[in-house]
């Protein structure tokens, strides 16, 4: 099939890119608590990016991609995922009551959907999550917990948690250790829709990775056109050209995989779950590759604190690990194919 954005979606994407290019000051933002700027957050909410009901899932995915391109710090991605979780697994009453708080920017969310760390017994949440992105500034945690009757998808108020600063690679989404010691559950979403929530979360993380990969590679290509050795731009050297071309091919393949997965989810296609896993696998790997190649092409300056190349690599590692790396996604795809057979 041929997949392309509509003119309206193209314009929406370009508008988001311009806004983020003008407003995101990476160095200033990562110096803030939780890498979160309340004024920027208000502006983003005012644009309707945090759960506007008029946005399709494809358009939400485009926002995640542009946020990744700008390496937007803070809880933006977590809040998008929480909003989509409510849309996919919340009851009509929960959606009516809770989505406006996300859409207005009143509530910021952090996500921890890795299984096994948290238990939900007798309407209480117990357990510890060692590395939750932007937990210090979150108002709500979207948590996957083990319960006697099966997996429980929970929205827990941050006031019910103990949050402690922890070390993490990604400076744009600083992590914290979160402990629940008998927290009361704010909301329990439908466990029957857990796979749908996972599909949406994987695609949004993959879109963030594609945007970051494209920007990291673009920075490297621009540098290769300007930096000269032996009276020639280094971009004219075969080794640099091959490295950049291979990275570009990986990034473009990942972008198409993400867009297709977003379309499949928006249209309730039967391949949506496998498409989301494929997108997460290829996008995570493409981002790590593009960010690493960007450092190599930049040479010595690419290894310095002053250059932003290392920020992209740190984000790449975080995106790759979030919700399962490429090996985990491919194992799940293989299991799904065998089950169909």
3D architecture notes:
The protein has 341 residues and is of the alpha+beta class. It folds into three domains: 7-103, Acyl-CoA dehydrogenase/oxidase, N-terminal domain (Butyryl-Coa Dehydrogenase, subunit A, domain 1); 109-190, Beta Barrel (Butyryl-CoA Dehydrogenase, subunit A, domain 2); 193-340, Butyryl-CoA Dehydrogenase, subunit A, domain 3. Helix content is 55%, strand content 16%. The strands form three sheets. It has a four-stranded mixed beta sheet with strand order 1-4-5-8, covered by helices on one side. A hairpin with a 2-residue loop joins β4 and β5. The model has no long low-confidence stretch (mean pLDDT 93).
In spatial order, strands of the major sheet run 1-4-5-8
Largest sheet: 4 strands, mixed
Which radius of gyration do the C-alpha atoms yield? 20 Å
How many discrete structural domains? 3
Kindly name the structural category.
alpha+beta
CATH fold category name of the largest domain? Butyryl-CoA Dehydrogenase, subunit A, domain 3
């Amino acid at each position: 099939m041929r997949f392309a954005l509509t003119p309206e979606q193209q314009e929406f994407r370009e508008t988001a890119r311009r806004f983020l290019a003008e407003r995101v000051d990476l160095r200033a933002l990562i110096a803030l608590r939780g890498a979160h700027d309340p004024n920027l957050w208000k502006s983003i909410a005012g644009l309707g990016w945090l759960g506007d009901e008029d946005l399709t899932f494809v358009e939400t995915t485009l926002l995640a991609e542009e946020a990744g391109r700008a390496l937007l710090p803070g809880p933006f991605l977590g809040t998008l995922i929480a909003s989509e979780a409510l849309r996919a697994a919340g009851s009509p009453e929960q959606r009516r009551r809770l989505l406006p708080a996300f859409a207005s920017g009143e509530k910021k969310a952090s996500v921890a959907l890795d299984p096994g760390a948290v238990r939900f017994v007798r309407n209480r949440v117990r357990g510890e999550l060692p590395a939750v992105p932007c937990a210090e500034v979150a108002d709500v945690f979207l948590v996957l917990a083990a319960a006697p009757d099966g997996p429980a998808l929970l929205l827990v108020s941050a006031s019910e948690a103990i949050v402690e600063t922890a070390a993490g690679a990604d400076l744009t989404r600083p992590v914290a250790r979160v402990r629940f010691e008998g927290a009361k559950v704010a909301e329990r979403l439908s466990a029957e829709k857990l796979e749908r929530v996972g599909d949406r979360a994987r695609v949004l993380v993959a879109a963030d990775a594609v945007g970051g990969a494209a920007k990291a590679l673009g920075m490297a290509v621009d540098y290769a056109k300007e930096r000269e050795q032996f009276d020639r731009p280094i971009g004219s050297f075969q080794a640099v050209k091959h490295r950049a071309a291979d990275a570009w091919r990986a990034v473009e393949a990942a972008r198409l995989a993400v867009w297709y997965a977003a379309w499949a989810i928006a249209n309730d296609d039967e391949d949506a779950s496998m498409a989301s896993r494929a997108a997460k696998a290829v996008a995570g790997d493409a981002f790590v590759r593009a960010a690493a190649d960007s450092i190599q092409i930049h040479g010595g300056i690419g290894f310095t604190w002053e250059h932003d190349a290392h920020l992209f690599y740190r984000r790449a590692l975080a995106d790759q690990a979030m919700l399962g790396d490429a090996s985990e996604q491919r194992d799940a795809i293989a299991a799904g194919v065998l089950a169909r057979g």
